[in-house]
């Protein structure tokens, strides 16, 4: 019998040379309990090479149970969980590895990576920075990840700063350069995008990801046909879902529905389980009124497809008698305002509902008339007390046919506060609130918003105009300064809702302000792009604002006709 060291070395050499069955046979000959942890780890590595992940995981866990301070199986489990995209397990194991040595830069990097994969972006940044401070060698990798994180957090300027500084030290790195171009395109900085795209062409004119960014750049310039042709070329070379998704998006946004539906159908037949393609299919089904299909796919619309509150079961229509349910808003403020009325229907079958709201919104909601419906913020939530959870948007599929909701919602205003704004209103003229753009990095931007310059023809001294939006884009700032518009965009939602009650009319693109004004019962003119959010499709037949008038764009990225009609309609109001 070989001595212990030779025995273990033989297993190691067989494993290294991919003689897996021989290595496994040798492992099974072990009779010494004191090396069980090493043998189980070897067996896990053998099964990992055999791609039998269940057996591999089982043996790594056995190794840990044999000797909890043996780090190798923890590291191997990290690899398995990452490959299997079991990111909640990945996070758990990464912290256990870190416990072995909190000053190890690689272990801190792994925790940062696991946090990133679980959607804890801000916390992830902390561990990446700690890894840097501890001397993590591949600084380029960390800086690239940090750039991605800041981009995902909407801090594009910070993202660009990191990408740019790192790129200047690694000018031959195609991934870094490509990420830098993507960040400038997201910021819609034409000049800088062009500058770095020119560099990318010189670096590698055939690199398919550079071409993808070139297509995004062409679309940003409104060179739609050129963008489409370039995307067709690169998709022929590489059927990347990102490339396919952008081409689908361009087809639908520019009104080329036949081409968009054909492409989507073709690629779904080839990639039937791809979540991004299924997300497109969901939206197209909903906008076309194919609700049964659309609701089945609605889970793919949740932001980043992340599962929130994984410990709580999803409500799928079960009896809610004596049950407690958590409802959360997975999207923006406008969605919270729009869809909150479905809580009224839910409240008919459940008398114990907690609805999580952002702090800036909770003041405009009132649930006193609905027994068992509670409004809370994420700060006072106890995840252990719920039987079920559901996203606010997912409630629609259960209750969208409830005709009693046409005029009902949870938005309330204080009449005394409403009257306090009267002295700020000149009643000798019609008073009109306007909101022309939403969040700069929001969905379907910049095409769902309207350049303020397009409002010039309707901003006349015959009316008093009030800005109702908080964010004014840099591209609109000079125009805003030169127009006679009274700025009320600094008001928070509660006082803003009270101010809106004093207006005669609100004119808005598809923003949260639009839904706030309409929910308050104010006459509202809605300006909708050629490819609007799905709720402006067939769904509008079920979800009706009785006080809203819809103006639909006829040509992609062209608001001229709409503004001319609005100008005429305003003259009629005088």
Describe the secondary structure blueprint for this structure.
Layout: H1 4-16, H2 20-27, H3 36-49, H4 53-66, H5 72-83, H6 87-98, H7 105-117, H8 121-133, H9 139-152, H10 156-168, H11 174-186, H12 190-203, H13 208-220, H14 224-237, H15 241-253, H16 257-270, H17 275-288, H18 291-296, E1 325-328, H19 333-339, H20 342-349, E2 353-356, H21 359-362, E3 373-376, E4 388-391, H22 396-399, H23 415-420, E5 430-435, E6 463-467, H24 477-482, E7 486-487, H25 493-500, E8 505-509, H26 512-519, E9 524-528, E10 548-552, H27 560-573
Helix pairs in contact: 1-2, 1-3, 2-3, 3-4, 3-5, 4-5, 5-6, 6-7, 7-8, 8-9, 9-10, 10-11, 11-12, 11-13, 12-13, 13-14, 14-15, 15-16, 16-17, 19-26
Summarize the structure in words:
- With 574 residues, the chain is an alpha/beta fold.
- The chain has 27 helices and 10 strands.
- The strands form 2 sheets. The chain has a 6-stranded parallel β-sheet, covered by helices on one side.
- Strand 6, helix 24 and strand 7 form a beta-alpha-beta unit.
- The model has no long low-confidence stretch (mean pLDDT 91).
Describe the structure in brief:
The protein is an alpha/beta fold and about 575 residues long.
Strand content: 5-15%
Mean pLDDT: 91
- Rg computed from alpha carbons, rounded to a whole number of angstroms: 28 Å
How many strand segments?
Answer: 10
Shape: globular
Helix content: 40-55%
Distance between the termini: 103 Å
Characterize the largest beta sheet: strand count, sense, and whether it forms a barrel. Answer: 6 strands, parallel
Major sheet strand order = 7-6-5-8-9-10
- pLDDT below 50 for ≥5 consecutive residues: which ranges? none
Helix/strand/pairing category: alpha/beta
Instruction: Count helical runs.
Output: 27
């Amino acid at each position: 019998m070989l001595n212990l060291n030779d025995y273990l070395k033989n297993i190691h050499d067989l494993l290294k040379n991919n003689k897996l069955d021989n290595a496994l046979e040798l492992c099974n000959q072990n009779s010494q309990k004191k090396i069980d942890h090493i043998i189980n780890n070897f067996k896990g590595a053998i099964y990992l090479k055999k791609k039998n992940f269940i057996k591999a995981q089982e043996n790594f866990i056995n190794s840990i149970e044999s000797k909890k301070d043996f780090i190798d199986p923890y590291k191997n489990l990290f690899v398995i969980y990452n490959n299997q995209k079991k990111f909640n397990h990945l996070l758990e194991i990464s912290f256990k590895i870190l416990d072995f040595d909190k000053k190890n830069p690689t272990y801190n990097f792994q925790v940062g990576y696991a946090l990133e994969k679980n959607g804890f972006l801000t916390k992830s940044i902390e561990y990446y920075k700690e890894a840097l401070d501890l001397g993590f060698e591949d600084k380029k990798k960390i800086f690239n990840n940090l750039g991605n994180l800041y981009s995902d957090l909407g801090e594009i300027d910070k993202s660009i700063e990191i990408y740019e500084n790192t790129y200047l030290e690694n000018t031959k790195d195609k991934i870094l350069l490509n990420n830098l171009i993507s960040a400038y395109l997201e910021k819609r900085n034409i000049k800088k995008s062009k500058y770095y795209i020119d560099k990318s062409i010189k670096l590698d004119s055939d690199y398919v990801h550079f071409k993808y960014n070139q297509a995004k750049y062409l679309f940003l310039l409104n060179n739609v046909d050129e963008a489409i042709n370039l995307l067709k070329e690169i998709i022929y070379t590489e059927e990347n879902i990102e490339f396919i998704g952008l081409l689908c998006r361009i087809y639908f946004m520019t009104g080329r529905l036949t081409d968009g539906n054909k492409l989507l159908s073709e690629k779904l037949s080839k990639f039937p389980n791809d979540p991004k393609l299924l997300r497109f299919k969901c939206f197209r089904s909903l906008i076309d009124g194919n609700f049964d299909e659309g609701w089945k796919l609605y889970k793919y619309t949740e932001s980043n497809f992340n599962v929130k509150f994984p410990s709580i079961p999803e409500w799928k229509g079960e009896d809610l008698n004596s049950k407690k349910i958590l409802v959360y808003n997975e999207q923006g403020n406008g969605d919270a305002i729009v869809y909150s009325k479905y809580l009224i229907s839910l409240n008919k079958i459940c008398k114990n509902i907690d609805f999580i709201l952002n702090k800036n919104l909770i003041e405009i909601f009132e649930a006193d008339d609905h027994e068992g419906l509670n409004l809370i913020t994420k700060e006072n939530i106890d995840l252990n007390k719920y039987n079920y959870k559901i996203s606010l948007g997912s409630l629609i599929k259960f209750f969208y046919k409830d005709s009693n909701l046409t005029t009902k919602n949870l938005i309330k205003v204080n009449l005394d506060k409403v009257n306090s704004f009267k002295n700020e209103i000149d009643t000798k003229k019609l008073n009109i609130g306007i909101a022309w753009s939403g969040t700069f990095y929001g969905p379907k931007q910049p095409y769902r918003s309207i350049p303020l310059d397009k409002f010039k023809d309707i901003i006349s001294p015959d009316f008093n105009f009030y800005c109702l939006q908080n964010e004014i884009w840099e591209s609109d700032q000079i125009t805003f300064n030169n127009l006679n518009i009274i700025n009320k965009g600094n008001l928070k939602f509660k006082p803003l809702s009270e101010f809106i009650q004093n207006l005669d009319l609100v004119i808005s693109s598809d923003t949260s302000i639009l839904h706030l004004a309409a929910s308050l019962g104010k006459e509202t003119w809605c300006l909708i792009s050629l490819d609007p959010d799905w709720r402006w499709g067939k769904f509008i037949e079920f979800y009706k604002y009785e006080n809203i008038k819809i103006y639909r764009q006829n040509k992609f990225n062209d608001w001229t006709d709409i503004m001319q009609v609005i100008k005429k309609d305003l003259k009629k109001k005088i």
